[in-house]
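Please predict the structure of the following assembly.
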Amino acid sequence: MGGGIFFAATFYLTAAIALASALMVVSHRNPVISALYLALCFFAVAVDYVLLQAHFLAVIQVLLYAGAVLVLFLMIIMLLDLGHEAKEQAKPTLGKALGVATTFAIAVMLVAALFSYGRAARVPGGQNPLKLAALLISMGESKDLLPVKVPANFLKSVTHEEQVGLAQETMLYIISPGGLPYLELPQELNRKITPEKIPDLYQSLAAAIAAQKSYTNISPIPKYPAYSSGDLDHLVRVAVWARLNQYAQLGTTEAVGKSLFKRWVLPFELSGLLLLSAILGVLLIARRNTEGGQA
Amino acid sequence: MNALTDPIINVGLGHFLALSAAMFCIGMAGFLTRRNVLVIFMSIELMLNSANLALAAFAWQRWDLTGQTFAFLVMVVAACEAAAGLAIILTLYRNRKTVKVDEFNLMKW
């Protein structure tokens, strides 16, 4: 699913930076240096978010974590004036030994979970955007219109059997409940597909994608000739196109905003409430101190 | 590509999950072994970040935005937690003149 050498190189570089700086955060004696390494770690994770198609998260990571939270940490360190006790003796205690043992136990558990994840159910529907794009090119689509760029040598690596399988899987995934969560497909698409339903399916998919086009500029939807009965080819094309657009839209501000304000509006409102109560609580704690213990 | 280089070049969900797990363990080690309450707080931020990374990785693997949405909500909670926690640290420091957790024994009986 990744994007080749460049993707892999970026991942390994940022992973190394993130892990090394995380180690420095927990091991450095001076909390100021720790905070600065924490900033470096946050930036490396932000790059990983970009690799994961989470562009909005990457921006928020830099703004909120590296910006707001880190500045808060540094300000508190400055206010505390820790010069006399910044240094921490590294003498081993029973508590530390227990901490290391617990961490080791959790690490073993996580590694075991990592090795068992491969057996979990996989999502059908062509997870590789490059393969889906190659499928469209093989069906006669123009390369320039696709939301995903395909390397020329990649086309040869997709066999005919794979193409047929991809087309079928994608169709099945698209019409499954929740297959395209933010394409807002009509309810009737969620029922089982039968030959006589193909005209309706095509119309609904095309309408949903046309509606999508009105507020996005990611890729133009090619014009299809009017549907003629029995033409499954067009339906497959539209379905694969919708899936590719879904990948291209993953993590844009618009898509995350829609997800937040539509499907997950209640958690969003609750987090707003939490922010408000945090503001009030922090104000209360800070105020009590400035009045010299009167309150 | 052959079977030997494929898992190295073809970075997928497992790689991101491994990075997330390693970051979580580092954060947990810091949380459990350090005595400076500020560093303990930074370790909590590290652990929250690694959880966010796992959420974003699953969102990427499934082409589903739910993971990214909840990573955003986790960030909101982390910001609240940092603000409230640092205010408490400030108050504790004013009363006890220390940031070492084993010297905060106000609630000990």
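Chain A touches chain B through 88 residues (CB under 8 Å). The mean pLDDT of chain A is 76.
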